[in-house]
Design brief:
Structural class: alpha/beta
Helix content: 40-55%
Strand content: 5-15%
Distance between the termini: 25 Å
Shape: globular
Order of helices and strands: EHEHEHEHEHEHHHEHHH
Number of strands: 7
Strand order of the largest sheet: 3-2-1-4-5-6-7
Radius of gyration: 19 Å
Amino acid sequence: MTSTFTGRVAVVTGAARGIGAGVAREYVRRGGRVALIGLEPDELKSLAAELGDAAAWWEADVRDTNAVTTAVNAAATHFGRIDDVLANAGIASYGTVRQIDPEAFERVVDVNLNGVFRTLRATIPHVIETKGYLLVVSSLAAFTPLAGLAPYNASKAGVEALALATRQEMWVQGVKVGVCHPSWIDTDIVRGAEADLPSFKAIRSKLPWPANGTTTLEDCVTAICHGIAKKKRRVYVPRGVVVANLTKPLVSSALAEPIARRMVKKTVSAMEAEVAALGRNHSGHVPVTDKA
């Protein structure tokens, strides 16, 4: 297992912390080299120093097409190749559609969906050369929309569709494209949301497994690296998330609405009150870079 990625180079966005940093560490541990791309230069520099010559970092905002393209091209020049891509940068913002600040909503969609497009567009020419692999991080939320998470749900559903369309486009190029669907991962964004919004934690506790549990970062990283090594079509974290994919038509059907209706009647008003009481723009729930 330690030599899984020997000779290979990965580009990881949202690499400063959380899932991105974890995958970067494991990729290097297994013999690969990584280009770290993100928004927190101090964190990126520290991680690159930790990983040594196997890593290099570039500060770039996935909302900026030129910045992403420049960083990716610089990484390809530095390492001589790009074999794998983890389009991981993502953020979240909480609050109902009637309540959320429009700029916060737009930022979530721009980072989570448009940012993935920019990452794919910049990396595809390099990955075609190596017949490599692109893994896009979507979410369990692509299958199970939740009140109070509309921008996150919409963006992650869009990311899944974008990845599957890109997968078809890449067949002729000999490049494989996968979609990763993490449930709730033990990262800053989940811990911060539960600390700020007790109603969020209450909603999660009422959801069916695996949506009511939290997966360790270590388990998530292991699953993603396995998916990259095998160039998987889908990566579910935990594996039980596949059930949500298979039952998506039922969850969104009229049959399931009475259950959802009872749940949101008790939680939506509480969430709105908690978000308002925070006394800051709803983008206060948005981390600087990816935290799954």
